[in-house]
Amino acid sequence: MDQGSIARILKQVSGGEDEIQQLQKALLDYLDENTETDASLVFSRKFYIAQWFRDTTMETEKAIKSQKDDDSSEGTHHAKDIETTGQIMHRAESRKTFLRSIIKTAPSQFSTLKLNSDTVDYEDACLIVRYLASMRPFAQSFDIYLTQ
Questions:
Q1: Nearest C-alpha neighbor of 89 from the set 78, 79, 97, 101
Q2: At residue 105, what are phi and psi to the nearest 5 degrees?
Q3: What is the per-residue pLDDT across 10-22, written as a single tens digit (0 to 9) for each?
Q4: DSSP class of residue 146?
Q5: Which helix (DSSP H) or strand (DSSP E) does residue 36 occupy?
Q6: CB of 24 within 8 A of CB of 32?
Q7: Distance of CA 136 to the CA centre of its chain
Q8: Which terminus of the chain, N or C, has fewer Cβ atoms within 10 Å?
Q9: Burial readout 88-117 (b: 16 or more C-beta within 10 A, e: otherwise)
Q10: Half-sphere exposure of 7 toward its Cβ, with a 13 Å CA cutoff?
Q11: Where is this region: Disordered (predicted)?
């Protein structure tokens, strides 16, 4: 991954959100901007929103499950795990709120919310997609699957 390009995109896309949310917004801006030239991008935009929402929900469910597992075997790391679970829950809720706001916004209205339409070009959009895909659980555990 080209971390320099990711850092450049993050600088261009200003906002108080976390890094993942900024990249998601940049990619959605790109898709929304180019829907007139390629109708399949409308589907891609909806697919990404749905997938990210599902991922956030799964992350929250895993945090709750791990917290319940820790409750049954209270150990020395219990307080630290609750704090981490709380942080995961807070981040997940902020991402869900962000995605809900995008879902409620019509694509034509979403383009007016863009800060800079020249932020992301095709190559940057491909890089963002690869970067976000590398953050998914399957991509992170791919080496384990290959080893087995």
A1: 97
A2: -90, 130
A3: 888 776 668 888 8
A4: H
A5: none
A6: no
A7: 9
A8: C
A9: beebbeebeebbeebeeeebeebeeebeee
A10: 3
A11: 61-83
